[in-house]
Amino acid sequence: MRVRRRRPRVAQPTPGDGRPAPVPQPTTVNPPAGAPLTGTWRGAVTGDDSGFDVVVTFAGSNPVRSTVEYPQIPCARTWSEESRRGDTISLVERVTSGPCVTSQITLDRRPDGTLGFRSDYFAESRGRTLTIYATQRRA
User: Fold this and answer.
1) What Rg do the C-alpha atoms of the chain give, in angstroms?
2) Are 63 and 81 in contact (CB under 8 A)?
3) Residue-wise pLDDT tens digits, 28-38
4) How many other β-carbons are positioned within 10 Å of the β-carbon of residue 70?
5) DSSP E strands, 27-75
6) Confidence band for 5, pLDDT divided at 50, 70 and 90
């Protein structure tokens, strides 16, 4: 013969109206859109082009001001914020030295604390717009 054991009921606190209080659910929260990005971030590039890293040093977060290096490519660049919507920041990348091209950058803050990076630029040698991606982490 099987004996069924019941778990004891635990009394839940109730708000003033007598209903059980809601049980908190675990959540994942994005860092706030205004949280500082200040410091250096790094990620390996994938997409239409690869084999190099993007290294960004943020000097300010609102608006975003930064210097950018692609260590394997002899170019220096800066990013300037164009717009911001929630956790997505649109920037323009300008070449300060080297044989590179200007590109459009999108950064997305991710729940795990990383930054999603996307760059769209026209490659004259290929005759089309290329898109590259990286997951950037604090260096």
Assistant:
1) 23
2) yes
3) 333 444 457 89
4) 18
5) 39-44, 46-47, 53-61, 64-69
6) low
The reported pLDDT for the residue numbered 26 is: 37
Give 67-78 pLDDT, tens digit per residue: 999 999 888 899
Q: Kindly report the length of the chain.
A: 139
The amino acid at residue 124 is E
Question: Which of the pair, 14 or 124, is modelled with greater confidence?
Answer: 124
Reported as half-sphere exposure (CB side, CA atoms, 13 A), residue 61 has a value of: 13
Structure tokens at 72: 């394997």
Which contacts of 7-12 are long-range, i.e. CB under 8 A and separated by 24 or more positions?
Answer: none
Sequence-distant (6+) residues with CB within 8 A of 74 are 98, 99
Which one-letter amino acid corresponds to residue 48?
A: D
d(CA 33, CA 23): 28
Residues 115 and 71: their CA atoms lie apart, in Å, by: 19
Q: Which residues pair with 103 in a beta bridge?
A: 93
Domains of the chain: 39-138 (2.40.128.20)
Report pLDDT for 45: 97
